[in-house]
Design a protein that fits this description.
heterodimer; A: alpha+beta; Immunoglobulin-like; 4-stranded antiparallel β-sheet; 18 strands; B: 496 residues; Porin; 18-stranded antiparallel beta barrel; 4 helices; 26 strands
């Protein structure tokens, strides 16, 4: 964006800095607190040698810079070597929750409150105790205020700096990568080995670069350049193995933060006889910092998958299963919408809902909040009346369904007696799952296309592949 | 002819038959998905995601505003660093000018008119937004071509009941919005350096539209100050919002026939909304304290309750029903006045989407007990029934009124409609039948002196390019004790 690039060009055509995502400078080249700025903040421009902004000030950096030979750094633009920022300006506000709120609270210019993580936090018990966002999300354990490690903030030229409080910059969340592992995580060796376009041609799933594949290459198999070199394929596979380890590590942190937010509580059987089975499952928010899900809550899929089997293993009831697109069977499922599959009426799903006003008849759920019922020409402009007072625009809003701090919800299930196959026991498998967004979002946005030559089905498959089972429990029903 | 038909069928029977026919007709859209006439709009055929790569589409450039100073509205490029205030707030001023121009050729003969009026009317709304931060801004809005009353829009009258044909000019600086809004936490961040205190109260001060309960409770431009607290919560509630409001000026009371403006400090409102996992609940309360009953209507109290949810599926063919239930009540501080009356308006809004389409079917029944009156309404806005059907809602431009009265709430009625979409939602058509039965007498009576009525309405919209919308409306109505009504209009709306 800062390069003036169009928002609709491929990453292959972008400047490398445009592909970097959230990097050091997004936080450490900010000198003002912009409060609830919805991520629209001004960075202080500058090259590697310009000052950065941090919580501690310049003392340690100044000591390092006085020993450039020991730490093997250079501070002049015209010298070869490892360049380093020449000053660390103390910016105490970087340790405040408000700093996180500059991005993690989004209100659109038409008054739509899209993400409210910081607003939720401010009203939370955690804020009341003075626990900051950083205390839970940059500490030893993702998602709880477990204190901070102590150690060198950096290893410069192989020499560690002085020990101090360390803030964990993993900051795990519910999202995960969908792109080719040769492209992300960012890897300097990968970038030196091949371009993005070349990496996209490397068939990871086929096993290129593994002994098993290379020892059994089918006759006439054609490789695109530069992967027609077996050495290149082996080098690529070594890099990918590093990438897989990194992705697996981040996955453990993602599970850590999600499992420190959610829990399955009690499983209560209310009725269990030939007339039917009624039971309920308690889903809890075990954090006191904000709702769960939070942030982009209308696109966070957290739901219960229930499968009940009879004594012979035959499924007599299920809820939270998916359609052929891997969507849960809610109103936004393309198959339910087409009338090809029944609505999952007992689905327990914490995803908040975008609602769009109809010309008359109230509101209805939509995957994307475009009010095409009230006008054929949806047009984004600033609000002309105070939407702060109403908390939402006039024609679109969010129905929040997340669980408040330390709260819980009961998911209730009823299996009709007609569905039972006789005497029990029946066993219910109860799983709490998390997925970063529903597949129906892919269906809705596919009209504008996807980068990297990915098909909608491949995007959906990657999203579904990253789905996590946070907890699994079972309960038995004895039906006589 | 309308009186003969009504007498033969009985107006109540006619209304019931029309409603049941529409519901049955539209309801079968679910079973007949993709076959024959229904769904009326475009059908989405293939639900499975494609295996073929979808390249980036060519997306039109963003429709820029005529004036964008300081930063572009949703543009790209570097953001300005901003100016730091003594309070700690950082302001990055941007000035944007935008608006809407509407022009319509229309002919109308219906509720409240003694004869047909045919005219060409214009409306221009220009807004200037001084955006200081993402939460603080000031808006000025003017309407230089109208005085916000049906008879006071710039245009040309071809034919009118009072024979005032010819040009009329209503130019002037008519201020429709002049307010600032913001967040105390963003304005005074030095009061809470760590961001842990509950100081992020929202506020708005100045002139702007206040609308609650979908305009049934209040839909008026007020000079006011308001305070809001979002994201409160309680066990079982995901979010609670509470808003307090005090208005001191421009409180418009009554109907078109007896409108009065209260220009004194007198309106106090408390509005609350809460989300549970199943529903969104709202409780809205207003009181107006007015010493001059004879002139401006006197004291009044209003309460609105609503519950909005989805999830009821009466049978699989119809899909899940969206439902909204509302109770709105008005209580006069003494005896009823023309502007403030005792009454209750019970309403429900049901809608669903036929399978394999984006079309909408809706059924909105309502019951008025005594005569409910709104707390405030902008002169050009519709009455409380406007929320239930297009037949009860005006167009906000010129003398084209409503098919059925939106103010007469001492009725039992229903609006049933169908909206179809084509061409990626750039074209839509609404067909509606609506009717009311006079509730001030036996519902089965039709003595010619009551307020029974039925209307058939159509509304067509077509987007043209990035900035223009064509709208065509038409209706016929059968009104007890009056001549039949009819009207048609064609409008071009341009956004800039």
């Amino acid at each position: 964006m800062n390069q003036g690039e169009s928002t609709q060009i491929s990453n292959l055509e972008r400047h490398p800095t445009s592909r970097e995502g959230i990097t050091c400078v997004v936080c450490h080249r900010v000198e003002n607190i912009y409060n609830k700025a919805s991520g629209r903040i001004a960075l202080v421009e500058g090259d590697l040698l310009q000052p950065v902004y941090g919580p501690s000030g310049n003392a340690e950096l100044s000591r390092v810079l006085k020993n450039p030979e020991k730490y093997r750094v250079v501070t002049e633009a015209d010298k070869a070597g490892r360049k380093i920022h020449t000053k660390a300006v103390k910016f105490a506000a970087i340790s405040s929750s408000t700093f996180c709120g500059t991005c993690h609270d989004v209100t659109l210019l038409n008054g739509f409150r899209l993400e409210e993580a910081f607003s939720e936090y401010r009203a939370s018990p955690a804020a009341g105790r003075g626990v900051t966002c950083q205390d839970c999300h940059m500490g030893k354990v993702q998602g709880i205020a477990a204190g901070y490690d102590v150690g060198p903030a950096a290893v410069v030229g192989g020499v560690p700096t002085k020990s101090r409080k360390l803030t964990n910059h993993i900051m795990a969340g519910p999202d995960y990568s969908l792109v080719h592992p040769g492209i992300f995580p960012h890897n300097g060796e990968a970038q030196q080995l091949a371009t993005i376009a070349e990496w996209l041609k490397f068939d990871v799933a086929a096993g290129w670069g593994t002994d098993k594949f290379e020892d059994n290459i089918p006759a006439g198999y054609k490789f695109p350049s530069p992967w027609d070199s077996v050495d290149a394929r082996f080098d690529a596979r070594q890099i990918l193995n590093v990438q897989f380890k990194r992705l697996a590590f981040v996955r453990t942190k993602r599970l850590e933060v999600l499992r420190n937010g959610y829990a399955i509580g009690d499983l209560v059987t209310q009725k269990s006889d030939r007339g039917g089975i009624n039971f309920k499952v308690q889903v809890k928010n075990i954090t006191d910092g904000h709702n769960v899900p939070t942030g982009f809550a209308p696109e966070r899929l957290v739901w219960l998958r229930i499968i009940v089997k009879d004594r012979d293993g035959k499924i007599v009831f299920k809820s939270g299963d998916t359609d052929p697109n891997d969507d849960v069977r809610d109103n936004e499922s393309a198959y339910v919408h087409a009338g090809l599959m029944p609505l999952d009426k007992q689905l327990f799903n914490l995803q908040s809902r975008f609602l769009v006003r109809s010309v008359r008849g109230g509101e209805r759920e939509r995957t994307v909040v475009i009010p095409f019922s009230t006008t054929a020409l949806p047009f984004i402009r600033p609000t002309t009346s105070s939407r702060i007072l109403a908390g939402e625009p006039t024609v679109v809003r969010t129905h929040r369904k997340s669980i408040e701090a330390l709260g819980h919800r009961w998911a209730k299930y009823r299996i009709d007696g007609a569905k039972l196959t006789g005497a029990g026991p029946y066993e219910a498998s109860v799983e709490l799952l998390s997925q970063m967004f529903p597949i129906n979002l892919v269906s809705t946005i596919q009209v504008v296309g996807f980068d990297y030559g990915i098909s909608p089905r491949a995007v959906g498959a990657a999203v579904a592949a990253g789905r996590e089972v946070l907890y699994k429990k079972s309960v038995r029903f004895d039906v006589k | 002819m309308s009186k003969v038909i009504l007498r033969r069928c009985g107006s109540l029977c006619c209304l019931l038959f029309a409603v049941l026919a529409m519901v049955g007709f539209m309801g079968n859209a679910g079973h007949a998905a993709g076959k024959g006439l229904f769904p009326l709009g475009d059908v989405q055929e293939v639900p499975r995601l494609s295996d073929k790569p979808v390249p980036y589409a060519v997306v039109p450039d963003r429709p820029a505003m005529p004036i964008e100073l300081g930063c572009k509205f949703l543009g790209n490029g570097n953001l300005p660093k901003g100016i730091k205030l003594p309070t700690g707030a950082v302001w990055t001023p941007c000035l944007w000018v935008f608006g809407t121009y509407r022009t319509a050729f229309q002919t109308y003969d219906g509720v409240g008119s003694t004869d047909r009026i045919t005219e060409w009317s214009h409306r221009l709304d220009i807004f200037t937004d001084l955006q200081l931060t993402h939460s603080e801004k000031c808006i000025v809005g003017i309407a230089p071509l109208d005085e916000n009353r049906g008879a006071n829009f710039t245009g040309y009258t071809f034919d009118s009941p009072n024979k005032s044909d010819g040009w009329r000019f209503e130019s002037g600086v008519h201020v429709r919005a002049l307010f600032c809004e913001g967040d105390f936490g963003s304005l005074f961040p030095n009061l809470d350096l760590m961001g842990t205190k509950l100081i992020d109260f929202g506020f708005a001060v100045g002139r702007h539209n206040i609308n609650f309960q979908q305009g049934i409770l209040i839909n008026d431009v007020l000079d006011s100050v308001g305070l809001v607290r979002n994201n409160l919560y309680a066990p079982g509630f995901s979010s609670i919002r509470i808003t307090g409001l005090w208005a001191w000026d421009s409180i418009d009371r009554g109907t078109s026939a007896n409108r009065r403006r209260l220009n004194e400090s007198g309106l106090f409102g408390l509005f609350a909304q809460a989300d549970t996992i199943a529903s969104t609940l709202a409780l809205d309360m207003i009181t107006i304290q007015d010493d001059d009953r004879d002139e401006t209507g006197g004291d009044g109290y209003w309460i609105g309750l609503s519950a909005i949810q989805r999830g009821f599926e009466p049978w699989r063919g119809i899909g899940e029903i969206n439902s909204t239930y509302r109770i709105n009540a008005s209580i006069s501080g003494g005896d009823d006045t023309p502007q403030v009356t005792d009454g209750v308006l019970l309403s429900a809004e049901f809608s669903w989407t036929p399978h394999a389409s984006d079309d909408i079917v809706y059924v909105n029944p309502f019951i008025g007990i005594n005569r409910y009156s709104q707390a405030g309404r902008e002169p050009i806005a519709g009455g409380p029934l406007a929320a239930f059907g297009i037949s009860f809602a005006g167009n906000g431009l010129g003398n084209y009124g409503t098919e059925l009265s939106g103010f007469n709430t001492e009725v039992v009625g229903v609006a049933v409609g169908y909206q179809a979409f084509w061409d990626n939602h750039r074209r839509n058509l609404v067909l509606e039948v609506a009717g009311v039965k006079d509730a001030s007498r036996n519902l089965f009576d039709t003595d010619g002196a009551g307020t029974d009525g039925v209307a058939f309405s159509a509304q067509f919209q077509q987007a043209i390019g990035q900035r223009v919308q064509l709208q065509i409306d038409g209706f016929v109505s059968y009104l007890e004790g009056q001549d039949n009504g009819s009207g048609a209009r064609i409008e071009l709306l341009t956004r800039f």
